[in-house]
Amino acid sequence: MSFQQQVIQGLIWRGMYFLTVLLINIFVSRYFEAENAGWIFYFCNNLSLLMLIAGLTMENAVNYYGSNGQINRNSLAWFSLIWSLVVSIIVGLFLVIYYTWIHTVTTEQRNDYLFYSLCYIAGIQLTSLFTVQFYSLKNFIVPNVLMILLNMLLILSIPKKQTIAQTGSGFSVDIYFAYFLATGVLLAGGFLVYNKSWQQVSLPTWPEYRKLFKYALPALGANLVFFLVYRVDYWFVEKFNSDAALGNYIQVSKLAQMLLIIPAIVSSVVFPHTASGSERSTIKDNILRIGRFTSVGYVVLFCLVLIAGKWLFPFVFGKTYDLMYVPFLFILPGIWALSNLTVLSAYFGGINKVSVNLKGAVLALVLILVLDVIFIPKHGIIAAAMISSAGYMVNFLYSFVHMRKEHGIAFKDYWTIKKGDIQWLRSLTQS
Is pLDDT of 305 > 80? Predict the structure, then answer.
Protein backbone atom coordinates (compact mmCIF):
# COMPACT_ATOMS: atom_id res chain seq x y z
CA MET A 1 0.00 0.00 0.00
CA SER A 2 1.44 3.38 -1.06
CA PHE A 3 2.02 6.38 1.19
CA GLN A 4 -0.97 8.16 -0.38
CA GLN A 5 -3.27 5.18 0.13
CA GLN A 6 -2.25 4.91 3.78
CA VAL A 7 -2.92 8.62 4.33
CA ILE A 8 -6.41 8.26 2.87
CA GLN A 9 -7.14 5.16 4.93
CA GLY A 10 -5.90 6.93 8.04
CA LEU A 11 -7.89 10.08 7.31
CA ILE A 12 -11.11 8.15 6.83
CA TRP A 13 -10.97 5.79 9.79
CA ARG A 14 -9.06 7.87 12.32
CA GLY A 15 -11.09 10.87 11.24
CA MET A 16 -14.29 8.99 12.08
CA TYR A 17 -12.82 7.94 15.42
CA PHE A 18 -11.78 11.48 16.34
CA LEU A 19 -15.22 12.74 15.38
CA THR A 20 -16.68 10.49 18.08
CA VAL A 21 -14.01 11.75 20.50
CA LEU A 22 -15.10 15.31 19.75
CA LEU A 23 -18.73 14.38 20.42
CA ILE A 24 -17.74 12.83 23.75
CA ASN A 25 -15.86 15.99 24.66
CA ILE A 26 -18.85 18.18 23.78
CA PHE A 27 -21.45 16.11 25.65
CA VAL A 28 -19.22 15.55 28.71
CA SER A 29 -18.46 19.28 28.84
CA ARG A 30 -22.13 20.24 28.57
CA TYR A 31 -23.18 17.67 31.17
CA PHE A 32 -20.52 18.42 33.81
CA GLU A 33 -20.24 22.17 32.93
CA ALA A 34 -17.02 24.18 33.01
CA GLU A 35 -16.13 23.89 36.70
CA ASN A 36 -16.66 20.12 37.05
CA ALA A 37 -15.38 19.24 33.59
CA GLY A 38 -12.33 21.39 34.27
CA TRP A 39 -11.57 19.30 37.38
CA ILE A 40 -11.95 16.02 35.45
CA PHE A 41 -9.68 17.15 32.62
CA TYR A 42 -7.17 18.61 35.08
CA PHE A 43 -7.12 15.33 37.03
CA CYS A 44 -6.54 13.42 33.76
CA ASN A 45 -3.70 15.80 32.95
CA ASN A 46 -1.94 14.97 36.23
CA LEU A 47 -2.47 11.24 35.64
CA SER A 48 -1.01 11.59 32.15
CA LEU A 49 2.18 13.03 33.62
CA LEU A 50 2.48 10.13 36.09
CA MET A 51 1.85 7.63 33.32
CA LEU A 52 4.38 9.29 31.06
CA ILE A 53 7.11 8.94 33.69
CA ALA A 54 6.23 5.43 34.88
CA GLY A 55 5.50 4.12 31.39
CA LEU A 56 8.71 5.54 29.86
CA THR A 57 6.65 6.25 26.70
CA MET A 58 7.36 2.64 25.76
CA GLU A 59 4.87 2.87 22.89
CA ASN A 60 7.54 4.80 20.93
CA ALA A 61 9.97 1.89 21.16
CA VAL A 62 7.24 -0.65 20.38
CA ASN A 63 6.24 1.41 17.34
CA TYR A 64 9.82 1.72 16.10
CA TYR A 65 10.77 -1.95 16.41
CA GLY A 66 7.36 -3.14 15.26
CA SER A 67 7.60 -0.95 12.15
CA ASN A 68 11.07 -2.12 11.12
CA GLY A 69 10.45 -5.76 12.11
CA GLN A 70 13.52 -6.09 14.34
CA ILE A 71 11.42 -7.57 17.18
CA ASN A 72 8.73 -10.21 16.70
CA ARG A 73 5.23 -8.71 16.91
CA ASN A 74 3.93 -11.54 19.10
CA SER A 75 6.66 -10.78 21.61
CA LEU A 76 5.80 -7.07 21.50
CA ALA A 77 2.11 -7.81 22.03
CA TRP A 78 2.60 -9.93 25.15
CA PHE A 79 5.24 -7.55 26.45
CA SER A 80 2.72 -4.71 26.05
CA LEU A 81 0.20 -6.50 28.26
CA ILE A 82 2.75 -7.10 31.01
CA TRP A 83 4.16 -3.58 30.72
CA SER A 84 0.69 -2.02 31.10
CA LEU A 85 0.10 -4.07 34.24
CA VAL A 86 3.48 -3.11 35.72
CA VAL A 87 2.95 0.60 35.04
CA SER A 88 -0.55 0.47 36.58
CA ILE A 89 0.80 -1.19 39.74
CA ILE A 90 3.63 1.33 40.09
CA VAL A 91 1.31 4.33 39.70
CA GLY A 92 -1.30 2.72 41.99
CA LEU A 93 1.25 2.20 44.78
CA PHE A 94 2.47 5.79 44.43
CA LEU A 95 -1.08 7.13 44.68
CA VAL A 96 -1.86 5.02 47.77
CA ILE A 97 1.17 6.59 49.46
CA TYR A 98 0.29 10.06 48.18
CA TYR A 99 -3.35 10.04 49.30
CA THR A 100 -2.58 8.33 52.62
CA TRP A 101 0.41 10.29 53.91
CA ILE A 102 1.12 13.29 51.66
CA HIS A 103 -2.26 14.65 50.58
CA THR A 104 -4.63 13.01 53.02
CA VAL A 105 -8.24 12.49 51.98
CA THR A 106 -11.11 10.39 53.29
CA THR A 107 -11.11 6.65 52.61
CA GLU A 108 -14.03 7.07 50.20
CA GLN A 109 -12.26 9.81 48.25
CA ARG A 110 -9.04 7.80 48.12
CA ASN A 111 -10.87 4.76 46.77
CA ASP A 112 -12.59 6.91 44.13
CA TYR A 113 -9.32 8.53 43.07
CA LEU A 114 -7.59 5.14 42.87
CA PHE A 115 -10.41 3.74 40.73
CA TYR A 116 -10.27 6.71 38.37
CA SER A 117 -6.48 6.55 38.21
CA LEU A 118 -6.10 2.83 37.56
CA CYS A 119 -8.81 2.81 34.90
CA TYR A 120 -7.20 5.76 33.14
CA ILE A 121 -3.57 4.60 33.42
CA ALA A 122 -4.18 0.99 32.39
CA GLY A 123 -6.59 2.02 29.64
CA ILE A 124 -4.36 4.65 28.06
CA GLN A 125 -1.29 2.40 28.28
CA LEU A 126 -3.05 -0.46 26.52
CA THR A 127 -4.59 1.87 23.96
CA SER A 128 -1.26 3.52 23.10
CA LEU A 129 0.73 0.28 22.93
CA PHE A 130 -1.73 -1.66 20.79
CA THR A 131 -2.79 1.20 18.53
CA VAL A 132 0.81 1.69 17.36
CA GLN A 133 1.10 -2.05 16.75
CA PHE A 134 -1.93 -2.00 14.49
CA TYR A 135 -0.46 1.00 12.67
CA SER A 136 2.93 -0.71 12.33
CA LEU A 137 1.04 -3.33 10.32
CA LYS A 138 -0.41 -0.43 8.30
CA ASN A 139 -3.88 -1.36 9.52
CA PHE A 140 -5.97 1.70 10.38
CA ILE A 141 -9.37 0.08 10.04
CA VAL A 142 -9.64 -2.52 12.83
CA PRO A 143 -8.47 -0.40 15.79
CA ASN A 144 -10.54 2.61 14.80
CA VAL A 145 -13.69 0.60 14.16
CA LEU A 146 -13.37 -0.94 17.63
CA MET A 147 -12.85 2.46 19.26
CA ILE A 148 -15.67 4.06 17.26
CA LEU A 149 -18.15 1.41 18.41
CA LEU A 150 -17.14 1.83 22.06
CA ASN A 151 -17.26 5.62 21.80
CA MET A 152 -20.77 5.47 20.40
CA LEU A 153 -21.88 3.40 23.41
CA LEU A 154 -20.41 6.04 25.73
CA ILE A 155 -22.07 8.87 23.79
CA LEU A 156 -25.46 7.17 24.08
CA SER A 157 -25.04 6.92 27.87
CA ILE A 158 -24.46 10.68 28.39
CA PRO A 159 -27.63 12.70 29.14
CA LYS A 160 -28.07 15.30 26.40
CA LYS A 161 -30.72 17.54 27.98
CA GLN A 162 -29.52 17.65 31.56
CA THR A 163 -26.47 18.85 33.44
CA ILE A 164 -24.90 17.28 36.51
CA ALA A 165 -26.67 19.96 38.57
CA GLN A 166 -30.04 18.71 37.29
CA THR A 167 -29.57 14.99 37.80
CA GLY A 168 -27.95 12.89 40.48
CA SER A 169 -28.05 9.60 38.60
CA GLY A 170 -27.31 8.12 35.21
CA PHE A 171 -23.99 9.12 33.67
CA SER A 172 -21.21 9.44 36.25
CA VAL A 173 -17.51 10.05 36.62
CA ASP A 174 -17.09 6.30 37.25
CA ILE A 175 -18.50 5.47 33.82
CA TYR A 176 -16.32 8.09 32.16
CA PHE A 177 -13.09 6.65 33.59
CA ALA A 178 -14.15 3.01 33.13
CA TYR A 179 -14.50 3.81 29.43
CA PHE A 180 -10.71 4.33 29.16
CA LEU A 181 -10.03 0.87 30.56
CA ALA A 182 -12.65 -0.72 28.32
CA THR A 183 -11.04 0.87 25.27
CA GLY A 184 -7.60 -0.45 26.15
CA VAL A 185 -8.82 -3.98 26.87
CA LEU A 186 -10.82 -4.05 23.63
CA LEU A 187 -7.82 -2.96 21.54
CA ALA A 188 -5.48 -5.41 23.25
CA GLY A 189 -7.87 -8.30 22.69
CA GLY A 190 -8.49 -7.19 19.12
CA PHE A 191 -4.78 -7.17 18.29
CA LEU A 192 -4.11 -10.56 19.90
CA VAL A 193 -6.88 -12.03 17.75
CA TYR A 194 -5.98 -10.13 14.57
CA ASN A 195 -2.26 -10.98 14.80
CA LYS A 196 -3.03 -14.50 16.10
CA SER A 197 -0.72 -13.77 19.02
CA TRP A 198 -2.81 -16.05 21.22
CA GLN A 199 -1.38 -19.02 19.31
CA GLN A 200 2.16 -18.31 20.47
CA VAL A 201 2.90 -16.71 23.83
CA SER A 202 6.40 -15.23 23.77
CA LEU A 203 8.36 -12.32 25.17
CA PRO A 204 11.34 -10.34 23.86
CA THR A 205 14.83 -11.69 24.50
CA TRP A 206 17.20 -9.85 26.84
CA PRO A 207 19.02 -8.15 23.94
CA GLU A 208 15.63 -7.07 22.60
CA TYR A 209 14.66 -5.69 26.02
CA ARG A 210 17.85 -3.62 25.93
CA LYS A 211 16.88 -2.31 22.50
CA LEU A 212 13.42 -1.31 23.75
CA PHE A 213 14.71 0.52 26.79
CA LYS A 214 17.62 2.06 24.91
CA TYR A 215 15.12 3.61 22.49
CA ALA A 216 12.46 4.44 25.07
CA LEU A 217 14.61 6.30 27.60
CA PRO A 218 15.84 9.09 25.28
CA ALA A 219 12.33 9.30 23.83
CA LEU A 220 11.03 9.66 27.40
CA GLY A 221 13.06 12.82 27.84
CA ALA A 222 11.70 14.29 24.63
CA ASN A 223 8.11 13.31 25.38
CA LEU A 224 8.27 14.52 28.99
CA VAL A 225 9.56 17.92 27.92
CA PHE A 226 7.03 18.06 25.08
CA PHE A 227 4.23 17.13 27.50
CA LEU A 228 5.22 20.06 29.69
CA VAL A 229 5.35 22.35 26.65
CA TYR A 230 1.76 21.36 25.96
CA ARG A 231 0.38 21.45 29.48
CA VAL A 232 2.58 23.18 32.04
CA ASP A 233 0.31 26.21 31.72
CA TYR A 234 -2.55 24.15 33.22
CA TRP A 235 -0.90 24.28 36.64
CA PHE A 236 -0.39 28.04 36.46
CA VAL A 237 -3.97 28.63 35.32
CA GLU A 238 -5.31 26.34 38.09
CA LYS A 239 -3.32 28.20 40.75
CA PHE A 240 -4.14 31.78 39.72
CA ASN A 241 -7.61 31.54 38.14
CA SER A 242 -11.12 30.39 38.98
CA ASP A 243 -12.36 26.83 38.37
CA ALA A 244 -14.57 28.16 35.57
CA ALA A 245 -11.59 29.85 33.88
CA LEU A 246 -9.59 26.62 34.22
CA GLY A 247 -12.43 24.66 32.61
CA ASN A 248 -12.62 27.15 29.75
CA TYR A 249 -8.87 27.15 29.18
CA ILE A 250 -8.51 23.38 29.21
CA GLN A 251 -11.39 23.21 26.74
CA VAL A 252 -9.52 25.67 24.51
CA SER A 253 -6.44 23.47 24.77
CA LYS A 254 -8.36 20.26 24.10
CA LEU A 255 -10.16 21.75 21.11
CA ALA A 256 -6.87 23.09 19.77
CA GLN A 257 -5.29 19.66 20.14
CA MET A 258 -8.20 18.17 18.21
CA LEU A 259 -6.93 20.23 15.30
CA LEU A 260 -3.81 18.08 15.39
CA ILE A 261 -5.85 15.05 14.30
CA ILE A 262 -4.94 15.22 10.62
CA PRO A 263 -1.21 15.84 11.30
CA ALA A 264 -1.29 12.94 13.79
CA ILE A 265 -2.85 10.70 11.15
CA VAL A 266 -0.21 11.72 8.64
CA SER A 267 2.61 11.26 11.17
CA SER A 268 1.40 7.74 11.94
CA VAL A 269 2.08 7.01 8.25
CA VAL A 270 5.32 9.01 8.04
CA PHE A 271 6.92 7.22 11.00
CA PRO A 272 6.68 3.63 9.70
CA HIS A 273 7.94 4.73 6.27
CA THR A 274 10.98 6.54 7.66
CA ALA A 275 11.64 3.85 10.28
CA SER A 276 11.60 1.11 7.65
CA GLY A 277 13.55 3.19 5.14
CA SER A 278 10.95 2.82 2.40
CA GLU A 279 10.16 5.78 0.15
CA ARG A 280 12.24 8.06 2.37
CA SER A 281 13.29 10.17 -0.60
CA THR A 282 9.68 11.23 -1.23
CA ILE A 283 8.78 11.91 2.42
CA LYS A 284 10.25 15.43 2.38
CA ASP A 285 8.08 16.48 -0.58
CA ASN A 286 4.99 14.99 1.04
CA ILE A 287 5.72 16.78 4.32
CA LEU A 288 5.89 20.15 2.55
CA ARG A 289 2.72 19.48 0.56
CA ILE A 290 0.87 18.63 3.74
CA GLY A 291 2.29 21.77 5.35
CA ARG A 292 1.00 23.99 2.55
CA PHE A 293 -2.53 22.60 2.73
CA THR A 294 -2.37 22.94 6.52
CA SER A 295 -1.44 26.63 6.23
CA VAL A 296 -4.39 27.39 3.97
CA GLY A 297 -6.72 25.52 6.29
CA TYR A 298 -5.62 27.47 9.35
CA VAL A 299 -6.02 30.83 7.65
CA VAL A 300 -9.61 29.91 6.77
CA LEU A 301 -10.25 28.56 10.26
CA PHE A 302 -8.90 31.72 11.94
CA CYS A 303 -11.24 33.88 9.87
CA LEU A 304 -14.23 31.68 10.71
CA VAL A 305 -13.49 31.70 14.45
CA LEU A 306 -12.91 35.46 14.37
CA ILE A 307 -16.38 35.95 12.91
CA ALA A 308 -18.42 33.29 14.70
CA GLY A 309 -16.44 32.04 17.69
CA LYS A 310 -17.87 34.40 20.31
CA TRP A 311 -21.35 32.81 20.14
CA LEU A 312 -20.33 29.42 18.72
CA PHE A 313 -18.35 28.13 21.71
CA PRO A 314 -21.13 28.67 24.30
CA PHE A 315 -23.64 27.26 21.82
CA VAL A 316 -21.65 24.04 21.33
CA PHE A 317 -20.16 23.42 24.79
CA GLY A 318 -22.73 25.18 26.96
CA LYS A 319 -23.23 28.64 28.42
CA THR A 320 -20.49 28.15 31.05
CA TYR A 321 -17.87 28.21 28.26
CA ASP A 322 -18.11 31.91 27.52
CA LEU A 323 -14.38 32.63 28.07
CA MET A 324 -13.01 30.52 25.20
CA TYR A 325 -13.21 32.99 22.31
CA VAL A 326 -10.15 35.25 22.77
CA PRO A 327 -7.75 32.54 24.08
CA PHE A 328 -8.66 30.29 21.15
CA LEU A 329 -7.83 33.02 18.62
CA PHE A 330 -4.45 33.60 20.25
CA ILE A 331 -3.56 29.91 20.39
CA LEU A 332 -4.40 29.16 16.75
CA PRO A 333 -1.07 30.38 15.26
CA GLY A 334 0.74 28.09 17.68
CA ILE A 335 -1.48 25.17 16.72
CA TRP A 336 -0.55 25.78 13.07
CA ALA A 337 3.08 25.42 14.17
CA LEU A 338 2.29 22.25 16.15
CA SER A 339 0.44 20.76 13.21
CA ASN A 340 3.57 20.99 11.08
CA LEU A 341 5.85 20.09 13.99
CA THR A 342 3.89 16.84 14.54
CA VAL A 343 4.84 15.63 11.07
CA LEU A 344 8.45 16.82 11.39
CA SER A 345 8.78 15.07 14.77
CA ALA A 346 7.55 11.81 13.24
CA TYR A 347 10.17 12.20 10.51
CA PHE A 348 13.03 12.78 12.94
CA GLY A 349 11.78 9.99 15.20
CA GLY A 350 11.60 7.62 12.24
CA ILE A 351 15.25 8.29 11.30
CA ASN A 352 16.23 7.93 14.97
CA LYS A 353 17.11 11.59 15.51
CA VAL A 354 15.00 12.05 18.64
CA SER A 355 17.54 14.58 19.92
CA VAL A 356 16.21 17.16 17.44
CA ASN A 357 12.72 16.83 18.92
CA LEU A 358 14.12 17.03 22.45
CA LYS A 359 16.23 20.15 21.97
CA GLY A 360 13.44 22.05 20.25
CA ALA A 361 11.00 21.14 23.02
CA VAL A 362 13.47 22.26 25.72
CA LEU A 363 13.79 25.70 24.10
CA ALA A 364 10.01 26.04 23.95
CA LEU A 365 9.56 24.88 27.54
CA VAL A 366 12.07 27.38 28.94
CA LEU A 367 10.33 30.21 27.09
CA ILE A 368 6.86 29.12 28.25
CA LEU A 369 7.91 28.66 31.90
CA VAL A 370 9.56 32.07 32.14
CA LEU A 371 6.66 33.91 30.52
CA ASP A 372 4.01 31.93 32.45
CA VAL A 373 5.57 32.95 35.75
CA ILE A 374 5.58 36.60 34.72
CA PHE A 375 2.23 37.03 32.96
CA ILE A 376 -0.36 34.38 33.95
CA PRO A 377 -0.86 35.59 37.57
CA LYS A 378 -1.99 38.99 36.26
CA HIS A 379 -3.40 38.34 32.80
CA GLY A 380 -4.88 34.85 33.20
CA ILE A 381 -5.93 32.55 30.38
CA ILE A 382 -5.42 35.08 27.59
CA ALA A 383 -1.75 35.37 28.51
CA ALA A 384 -1.53 31.57 28.82
CA ALA A 385 -2.81 31.14 25.26
CA MET A 386 -0.44 33.76 23.81
CA ILE A 387 2.57 32.30 25.62
CA SER A 388 1.78 28.73 24.57
CA SER A 389 1.39 29.87 20.97
CA ALA A 390 4.81 31.53 21.06
CA GLY A 391 6.40 28.43 22.58
CA TYR A 392 4.89 26.14 19.94
CA MET A 393 6.22 28.42 17.21
CA VAL A 394 9.75 28.31 18.64
CA ASN A 395 9.58 24.51 18.83
CA PHE A 396 8.51 24.23 15.20
CA LEU A 397 11.14 26.67 13.94
CA TYR A 398 13.92 24.70 15.63
CA SER A 399 12.89 21.46 13.89
CA PHE A 400 12.32 23.34 10.62
CA VAL A 401 15.88 24.68 10.67
CA HIS A 402 17.23 21.13 11.00
CA MET A 403 14.99 19.93 8.18
CA ARG A 404 16.24 22.80 6.05
CA LYS A 405 19.87 21.79 6.67
CA GLU A 406 19.16 18.28 5.42
CA HIS A 407 16.89 19.06 2.47
CA GLY A 408 17.42 22.73 1.57
CA ILE A 409 13.80 23.79 2.11
CA ALA A 410 12.64 27.37 2.79
CA PHE A 411 9.97 28.76 5.13
CA LYS A 412 8.03 30.11 2.14
CA ASP A 413 7.59 26.49 0.99
CA TYR A 414 4.86 26.19 3.63
CA TRP A 415 2.76 28.98 2.11
CA THR A 416 2.66 28.64 -1.68
CA ILE A 417 0.33 26.04 -3.17
CA LYS A 418 1.83 24.58 -6.34
CA LYS A 419 0.27 22.85 -9.32
CA GLY A 420 1.92 19.60 -8.29
CA ASP A 421 0.21 19.84 -4.89
CA ILE A 422 -3.23 19.86 -6.51
CA GLN A 423 -2.28 16.83 -8.59
CA TRP A 424 -0.97 15.09 -5.46
CA LEU A 425 -4.22 15.84 -3.63
CA ARG A 426 -6.21 14.41 -6.55
CA SER A 427 -4.08 11.30 -6.44
CA LEU A 428 -5.04 10.87 -2.78
CA THR A 429 -8.73 11.04 -3.53
CA GLN A 430 -8.36 8.57 -6.40
CA SER A 431 -6.27 6.07 -4.41
Answer: yes
